[in-house]
Amino acid sequence: MRDSEQDDPFSSGEPEIVDLDDAETARGGLLHGQYLSERSRFYLTLLTALGAAVLVLALLWPNISALSQPLLSGSQPVARPTTPVTHISQRTPPIVNVVTWGPITVMRAAPEYNSDLGRIFAFETRTGHVLWRSDQDIRTFGVSDAKVYVQWTDYSLHVLDVRDGSQLWQHPLPSGASVTSGANGLVFVAPDATTIVAYRLSDGTFVWSHEDVGSLQQIEAGVAYTFRSGPGSKGTISAFRVADGHLLGRFVTPDSYLRALVVEQGVLYVLQNNRDLVALRVSDQRQLWRRQIDENADLARIADGQIYFNVYEQGIDNWIDVWSARDGSSLWRYHYSYVVFSDEQAGIVYVSAHSSISALRTRDGVLLWHHETGFLDPAIQINAGSVYINSISRGVVDALNASSGKWRWSYSIDYHGDAQLDVLSFIAGIKDGIVYVVSMEDYSINALRANDKALLWSSHIVITQPH
């Protein structure tokens, strides 16, 4: 391995009121004695006062009558009918995560305002039959190799059997520690901001650890990548072999902060704070190319040899830029209203634009089909040849053929409440031919068969509120 300090692949360089009545004219008139005698003025004043009293009594009589009834009868006041008032609901959508392992699905639900704590339960994927539930609040969880790794509120790590929830092993962790991920038969823990520790998922055996390497960024093709800021204004990317923690290489960056770090097919793409995107080959640390991104661009995704950027220009329609991942050259650009990259699968790029969905050919951006949703800000998920379009405010899910855009089916929750909800439903996940839709009317999750929206089962979500 070459000395990365000597061969730096990142080097570069927000009326006045006027009274219009005349004062002398205002002093004249009927009640000032210019035309009537003193007796006439007295009787007229008396009659006027009596009339006013009668009028006030007539206006207030219903209230006086209502108030006098309990005093005369000794009973409690009788409530009069009022016009119903619709209150805006204070309910917020929960955070729901779904992970499937074979015939079993594990789900975690937590209140939005306390999303780092929630309860998990496991159920049979096809029937919704609950197999087991956690009796503890869970910070994080994951499923790997028929095991569920969870972190309790005391930060301790526990590994459970996915079939019955029985505990296989547990390990205490220091306050502030985090369980980052599980892969290759291991579970990774960050006891502090710069250390990574790997335990064997099957029995909790310590496998390897590295100090002073920063946070785990990505695991790809059996290699773990970390980033640590410093010393000074520089940062360091480290690559470790997952199996045994062997250091494969280090890459020094000129910035102590990175905007993005993505590994794809053996190439490390580093987006620096100065907007330089650098491509490095992992095997020999060679810089393949360097190019500066647009000032208003965000890296959306790198997949199948192409890099996708969302570009935002205030007062101007947004667009998508696409580069070659091989050499950084521009491939194509797509303009359409406020367009945003959503996903790329099977040679098709899916984008949303305010109230529509478009499908573009990956290699050249040619429009394949366009669909107007009829509602604003559609949420999109692509899975197994279908595009699922969700209006969270209307509680509607539309399914389209991903290749042709042809309509397949539409599903809407039955909402009967009198409260105004900002979110009626949302898709929690799509796994193994099942679409999981959360209804905010009754806090239920509905499992729909993906090919025909048939309801397989429905179950209420139990959420523990913070004390």
Automatic annotation (TrEMBL):
PANTHER family: CELL SURFACE PROTEIN (PTHR34512), OUTER MEMBRANE PROTEIN ASSEMBLY FACTOR BAMB (PTHR34512:SF30)
Domain Pyrrolo-quinoline quinone repeat: 118-217, 234-372
Native species: Dictyobacter halimunensis
Protein name: Pyrrolo-quinoline quinone repeat domain-containing protein
Keywords of this entry: Membrane, Transmembrane, Transmembrane helix
Source organism, top-level taxon: Bacteria
Any Pfam family the entry gives: PQQ_2
Keyword Plastid: no
Matching InterPro entries: PQQ_b-propeller_rpt, PQQ_rpt_dom, Quinoprotein_ADH-like_sf, WD40/YVTN_repeat-like_dom_sf
Regions crossing the membrane: 42-61
